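Structure ticket #2291
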Amino acid sequence: MESSDSQRFTVVLVHRLEHGATSADLAHTTTQIWRGIDAALSPIIGRRGVDALFRRSVHVAMQRHGWLAQIHSDALELPDLANLATTLEQQPADKAASGSGALIDTFHSLLIGLIGASLTERLFRSVWAIVSANQPPQDTSA
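Resolution: structure written out below.
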């Protein structure tokens, strides 16, 4: 994926933030993205592979967003995203969007390093379709 493509999910979060999304809204969007990622990748790299990449992503992203340490745990697994959602809801909306975007971008980068950009793009395409279908309409009246 091109670098601009790798930031699509972050753009969605920032767009929602700019349109008044609360931390709870961003937590919902983020968990929706992660469930989509899990569904797309588990058949390819296995549930344990997805969980391992997710845990590693949390570890790397919390270096810039220390509050993500609240969700870091050896038992952290993608299907159970309640801890992630709760942690995001406790942050101001701008921090929730920034930290969530960093977590997704980190996962994306790690996945590219593991399986390559082309396969990553194909796997993320189905996740992107789900997320973009749920975006609020943009105001084009200007």
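Closing remark: The CA atoms of residues 1 and 116 lie 9 Å apart.
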